[in-house]
């Protein structure tokens, strides 16, 4: 009987190796070993540029204290309202915001095509890249998509990337590390940990492994201030992802700053919280923050900006505005804090249901 042979995969060669079968009874020899997965070395080279215009150091990102997760406004047909977007970004810059997250959860990146997503990053860089750091949310639960979007984002000039761990189709911790290591070589990167959305925590030992890359700018952490302290004690830069905890995170737990939703509305006051310890101001803002997150973000923010007249009252489904009683509550919160502290220059309104546009195809 002919001797059976198997193929053993080693790098790029395929030599024959001895048979696992030694006799006609198909008994295994004492030297038999279980088959090993073929390991194919990655031949992917990052598509990146080192021209001066595109050259941003992770150190330039690590020093940012106030980063706004910027809202994306819409026209009545659901396309981007770039005029309203530009006005909103200019308001942020005018109040001292140092960075913007483009197309994040708050900016509804999950409702954009990748073409829209990269276009908005490019537009932001083109118009504001010299005044504020542009951090593109190019993360995905698909490693292939994350690589492609991140290459494109850096190619159009974004200063850093924001990356989330794979959600819904969750992976192992080893797979999580491999996912992030596939995008880190491309440029400065912020890792975003929000288990309430992804269904999976990024544990500290994973971040410690990723910190071996010089491109890790830091972590946006939503688990809480005790976790933030773990990172700051080990010299890892971290931004609070929770507006209601960010003051204490900054002044008591060592966070560099905050990646904020609330700063869309009151950027000047949020900047003050990050530059001067002010528990009284923090307490004053908590009713606004609680109101914003009464429903999943960005429902509250979209409703608030529409009532301030800063954006059109257009929602891409599945988001819908808050009910009228919450709209009335917001108007009262604005009056309590002071209209002058909020973006825009129109009086706050309580919009009726029929004032809103809900767009399902765009």
UniProtKB/TrEMBL annotation:
Give the record's GO biological process terms.
diaminopimelate biosynthetic process; lysine biosynthetic process via diaminopimelate
- Bilayer-spanning residue ranges: none
Q: Which InterPro entries match?
A: Aldolase_TIM, DapA, DapA-like, Schiff_base-form_aldolases_AS, Schiff_base-form_aldolases_CS
**For this protein, what is the EC number?**
4.3.3.7
Q: In which pathway does it act?
A: Amino-acid biosynthesis; L-lysine biosynthesis via DAP pathway; (S)-tetrahydrodipicolinate from L-aspartate: step 3/4
Annotated GO MF terms: 4-hydroxy-tetrahydrodipicolinate synthase activity
Pfam family membership, one: DHDPS
Q: Which reaction does it catalyse?
A: L-aspartate 4-semialdehyde + pyruvate = (2S,4S)-4-hydroxy-2,3,4,5-tetrahydrodipicolinate + H2O + H(+)
- Name the SUPFAM superfamilies on file: Aldolase
The UniProt entry, under SMART domains, shows: DHDPS
Keywords (A to Z) from UniProt: Amino-acid biosynthesis, Diaminopimelate biosynthesis, Lyase, Lysine biosynthesis, Schiff base
Q: Could you tell me which NCBIfam families the record lists for this protein?
A: dapA
Which purpose does this protein serve, as stated in its record? Answer: Catalyzes the condensation of (S)-aspartate-beta-semialdehyde [(S)-ASA] and pyruvate to 4-hydroxy-tetrahydrodipicolinate (HTPA).
Under which name does UniProt file this protein? 4-hydroxy-tetrahydrodipicolinate synthase
């Amino acid at each position: 009987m002919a001797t059976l042979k198997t193929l053993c995969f080693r790098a790029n060669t395929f030599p024959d190796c001895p048979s696992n079968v030694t006799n006609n009874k198909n008994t295994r020899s004492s030297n038999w070993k279980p088959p090993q997965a073929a390991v194919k070395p990655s031949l992917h080279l990052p598509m990146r540029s080192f021209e001066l215009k595109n050259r941003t150091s992770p150190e330039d990102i690590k020093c940012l204290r106030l980063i706004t997760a910027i809202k994306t406004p819409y026209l009545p047909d659901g396309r981007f309202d770039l005029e309203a977007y530009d006005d909103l970004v200019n308001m942020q810059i005018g109040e001292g915001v140092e960075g913007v997250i483009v197309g994040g959860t708050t900016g509804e990146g999950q409702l954009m095509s990748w073409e829209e997503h990269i276009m908005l990053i490019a537009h932001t860089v083109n118009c504001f890249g010299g005044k504020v750091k542009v951090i593109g949310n190019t993360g995905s639960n698909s490693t292939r998509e994350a690589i492609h979007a991140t290459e494109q984002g850096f190619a159009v000039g974004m200063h850093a990337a924001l990356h989330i761990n794979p959600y819904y189709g969750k992976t192992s911790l080893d797979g999580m590390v491999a996912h992030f290591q596939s995008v880190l070589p491309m440029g400065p990167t912020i890792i975003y940990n929000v288990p309430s959305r992804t269904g999976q925590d990024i544990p500290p030992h994973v971040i410690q492994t990723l910190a071996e890359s010089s491109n890790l700018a830091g972590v946006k952490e939503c688990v809480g201030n005790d976790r933030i302290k773990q990172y700051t004690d080990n010299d890892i830069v971290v931004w609070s992802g929770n507006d209601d905890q960010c003051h204490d995170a900054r002044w008591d737990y060592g966070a560099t700053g905050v990646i904020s939703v609330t700063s869309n509305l009151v950027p000047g006051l949020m900047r003050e919280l990050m530059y001067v310890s002010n528990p009284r101001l923090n307490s004053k803002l908590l009713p606004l923050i609680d109101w914003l997150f009464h429903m999943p973000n960005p429902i509250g923010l979209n409703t608030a900006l529409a009532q301030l007249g800063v954006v059109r009252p257009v929602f891409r489904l599945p988001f819908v505005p808050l009910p009228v009683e919450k709209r009335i509550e917001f108007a009262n919160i604005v009056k309590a804090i002071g209209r002058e502290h909020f973006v825009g220059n129109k009086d706050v309104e309580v919009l009726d249901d029929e004032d809103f546009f809900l767009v399902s195809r765009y």
